[in-house]
Amino acid sequence: MSASSTVSTPVSLPAEALRAFEAVLGRDGLIVEDSQLRTYECDGLPAIREVPSAVLLPTDTAQAQAIVRICAKHNIPFVPRGAGTGLSGGAMPMSGGVVITSTRMNRIVSVDFENQRMVAQPGVINNHLTDRVSPKGYFYAPDPSSQSVCTIGGNVAENAGGAHCLKYGFTTTHVLGLEVVLSTGELVHLGASCLDAPGYDLTGVFVGSEGTLGVVTEVTLRIVKRPETVQVLLAAFDTIAGAAQTVSDIIAAAILPAAMEIMDRLSVVSAEAAVHPNYPQCEALLLIELDGPAEEVHLQMEQVRECCRRNGSWEDRLAQTAKERMLVWKGRKAAFAAAGRLAPNYIVQDGVIPRTKLPQVLESIRRMSDAANLRVTNVFHAGDGNLHPIVLYDASHPGEEERATDLSLRILELCVDLGGSITGEHGVGREKQCSMGYMYAEPDLATMERVRTAFDPQNLSNPDKLFPRPRLCGEKTGSYTPHPLEIAGVAEFF
Amino acid sequence: MPSTTAIDPEALRAHAASVCGAEFVGPDNTAAPADTQQAAELLHYADSNDISICPAGAGTKMEWLGGAPAAMSLSTRRMNAVLEHTWQDMTCTVQAGCTWSALQARLGEQGQFVALDPLWADHATVGGVVASNDSGALRLRYGALRDLVIGMTLVLADGTIARSGGKVVKNVAGYDLPKLLCGSFGTLAFIADVTFRLHSKPLHITTLSMSASHAEPLGKLLLQVLDRHFSTVSMQLRGGPQGFALDLRLNAMPSVAAQQEEMLRGLGASMQPAEESVWAAREALFTDRDGWLIVKATMLPTGIAAAVQEIADAGGKVVAQATGILTGRVPRTSAGKLVRLRSWCEAQGGSLVLLHGDVVDGLDRWGTLPDSWPLMREVKRKFDPRITLNPGRFLGGI
After folding, report:
1. Which segments of chain A have a pLDDT < 70?
2. For A289, which of A258, A480, B110, B302 could close a Cys bridge (C-beta 3.0–4.6 Å)?
3. How are beta strands B112-113 and B82-86 bridged, if at all?
């Protein structure tokens, strides 16, 4: 059977390119059937969809390099994709383009405990990295809450964070080196297993570039010694300001918790209804996780409790066992999906503000939501000022979705006005690319474009993402749709 | 490559004087702009007239990597203000010409600091430290500049003023250009100001040391400490022909520190309290440097002891951080041994760069170029197409 006869695709890739893809990947490494392609038409932002012309599943670096060369030869745009859990549309396909998915490049290549490093292919699931090294007391620190399904390649693209990045840093902190196929098909190594590789820090600029600079084929990572002790404190406050001041006081006391999270009343109510974490019903719930040497954690927790009491906390509970801690975190991690109990539709945002602006931004959000006649519930990574306002609405009410979308974008602009950012961890993708023009001036963006054109002169690697594209502005990004795994309680976003 | 004599020096100085005032232009073709706008105007003029430019702070590392033969220096000495210290948010924004110690003194008023210990902090400027990606013993605990810089204002060679990053620690909007600029040695842009994330100063510091006649047992102890639950801030293995020492700095409450000292004894280590001054050992390698080669080498932590021993055996002195970054000082006559050491470092993914001293006996400055070098050159071309900024100073002649 000839290659071309095996390929039935409703879209228009050159037949020569399809034959070449199949010659490299084999029939089972190439998806062109319409029904299967639809699996890849969106990522965790399901409101924007596009069916790709083909999905390519390389098994190793050589295959990845070969297919990118074919793309370059035929001028076919490509979108690198991991598990597709991203929340900003960064991994959605583009019309006439292909998706290069890392699903079959899922091998942990090596682990070096003495030097606290490991090497993995991009399709390895985040949690599997920790699973591999935990028998010797290590873990891979960045913990996006989709970590049970998301891949390290996707984490690299998005510079994924997580609740514990307050202490341990983001993906970029833990990536030492990358093997990358550029859009020309050239294979390059950025960084190395050792620090400070001579030359420009291209690893630093590649991490978080959302697939626009090339395809990752191998990642060299740091692993971290698991802390001796972990304790989580749950403290109830009558005001968000009291909880926020506690966060500032803890940091001023030279204590660096592993995580600090605030949930407002609506979030507490919905989380309680969804997963019954037995939270106190309060205006603001503060979760503080300390880790480190046992004696130190014990002493610092006393200081933390004192900070809570001083700022009006009327109840605090310590979760010490793994089971107790899991229950506390379960409620927090359920916050996005649980918002579905408050309204039929909702939009999750990902703004960042200087931490001390929290009371001010909440007051502004309250006024804005009142004016829009919509409710907004809030959860924050309070230690680093990353807030996730959840705008609640009912799409069956005429005009309400438009008001909700407008409100969520204005909240992002408020974050920028206060010296913050439009995204702390979800990425720009397609969702927020037009807000980039609000955050950055034209020369700032043009300087970033210089980097892009150095890496990708043909503009083939995930084009139409990240940078403002006027023709795409005004696109409806729509409401949050929980991932099936999230509904099943297997994975959470937060 | 631009000609450094494409324009009459008098005309060059006259133009610089018209931009930033005659009193701020020296006979050595050093111009000191008052602000970012003036820097942009000077750069645009230089770029348009093929005049090469070297951004300059205090010049403490100007000779590194063979110096910068530019027609004009653009000094940051008038751009030396701490623009903002929002201590409750633990961030600060500072102009590039502020000295490291002046910045730290200001931050220290609130018990905070930029958690980095660069060389010559009393003189070195923020811009120079960032451009050279200097780091010391604190890196083990707090990371490098790439982990501490969260925003930057740049002036590109054509005069474009660009802001990158922001004032918040968590920010994934767009490319992380500050990382690209850290360690770029002034070849991509003039750094006008920098925004840092800050840390609280550690409250309970203890320094311990242990000596040995060979590096190997100390290297073994270093790996054991890395693998255990110590409150380690810094750890270095230093030595020379006279012997070796392992220094360990803990940040732990007194009762916790006592427990950890007991843990060290359990590892068979007889570490004794030591002065904080042991952490100045890296800087001491640079004193009276004439006739010496000074290198920065990187290796895996498992390779530290062997590298330290090698340099000592070559008649040199060395300080290696537990991160696997080593500064070594060896006699020029031992260059051949550095060539072998470089091969050994490169085989494990490391490197050896000649910071100070002329290229000698087959020891070039950089070692083997990475396969990403053509990409780096392309980045340089996009940022500085007329090769105005520090021509030829960087990796492989970029």
Report:
1. 1-11, 471-494
2. A258
3. unpaired
